[in-house]
């Protein structure tokens, strides 16, 4: 039985602009799945074929599983730390902001 968070081997059946369709074998069942483009890397992905090609077998993590539809959502990046951005990705304060600009305008 497939569960969220489980690592599985997925065979890529086709690559499209928005992701890669895959098949995962679970016992005697073949489950259809998708690795969405957003699950390849936290960084900009221009071409999915730089990560996978049709016929590749890749280790991925299960994000979600719909037993009724026999479909699975997969993540490529979760098992590859180099594709993840750092946890501290919040916007940092710039300091003075418009203060320096205001001083320049006021002094002219």
TrEMBL record:
Q: Which Pfam families does its entry note?
A: S1
Which GO MF terms are attached to this record?
Answer: mRNA binding; structural constituent of ribosome
Q: Where is the composition biased (Basic and acidic residues)?
A: 99-108
Q: Which GO terms describe its biological process?
A: translation
Q: Which domain of life does the protein's organism represent?
A: Bacteria
UniProt cross-references to InterPro entries, sorted A to Z: NA-bd_OB-fold (IPR012340), Ribos_protein_bS1-like (IPR050437), S1_domain (IPR003029)
Stretches the record annotates as Disordered: 88-108
Q: Coiled-coil annotation: which residues?
A: none
Q: Which PROSITE patterns match?
A: S1
- Residue intervals of the S1 motif domain: 5-77
Annotated SUPFAM superfamilies: Nucleic acid-binding proteins
Give the protein name, as stated in the record. Answer: S1 motif domain-containing protein
């Amino acid at each position: 039985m497939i569960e969220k968070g489980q690592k599985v081997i997925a065979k890529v059946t086709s690559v499209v602009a928005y992701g890669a369709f895959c098949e995962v074998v679970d016992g005697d069942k073949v489950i259809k799945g998708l690795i969405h483009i957003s699950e390849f890397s936290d960084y900009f992905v221009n071409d999915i074929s730089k990560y996978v090609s049709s016929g590749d077998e890749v280790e991925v993590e299960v994000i979600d599983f719909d037993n009724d539809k026999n479909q699975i959502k997969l993540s490529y990046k979760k098992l590859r730390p180099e594709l993840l951005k750092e946890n501290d990705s919040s916007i940092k304060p710039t300091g003075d902001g418009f203060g320096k600009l205001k001083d320049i305008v006021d002094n002219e």
